[in-house]
Amino acid sequence: MAVPFYQLMLVTHRQQTALDDYLHFVETCAKAGITSVQLREKEASADFLFHFAVQLKALLSPLNIPLIINDHVDLALAVDAAGVHLGNSDTCPQKARKQLGHHRIIGLSLESMTDCLTANQTDVDYVAASAVFPTVNKSNIRRHWGLDGLSKLARQSRHPLIGIGGIDESNLNAVMKAGAHGAAMIGAIHNAPDPVAAIQTLRALQH
Q: What is the number of other CB atoms lying within 10 angstroms of the CB of residue 174?
């Protein structure tokens, strides 16, 4: 049985790392067991994002790892990415679906139960509880779902649900038991002394 693309999503966090070095890091992670990559670089220029996305697509395609673009539907189309991940302030999913067609992935962040109920009536491929736990990697978080909130979302959502925010080796198993189908991560992989070992441990905790 194929592993779902949303099972273990690496969210990019290049910061000041040289691009070639960071691409090598992503390649290492891809070969170690991540199941998709989300390009999320909020402070980057449009030109740099395009260059970065082209490089990621070229790197990931031979490995059959989907590239998801955060926010930018136009960029996803320009580089032939697998799809987009949208927040509440981004392009509405209905408009994105018209632009992207039905063969591309659309993910949607959920910040309230109302968001979940609305998403149930929307043509998206997965939804993300944002954020499950406190995290330093995202500002303007409206709520922390916690395990109880995540469990409620899982019962209500008709789409596959992933967790985002503060998830690591210490709590991933509990996140999955609460009903998540996968997780998107920054710190648990980027900050690991041995990213390969970390990814292998994280994947094991999802079973």
A: 15
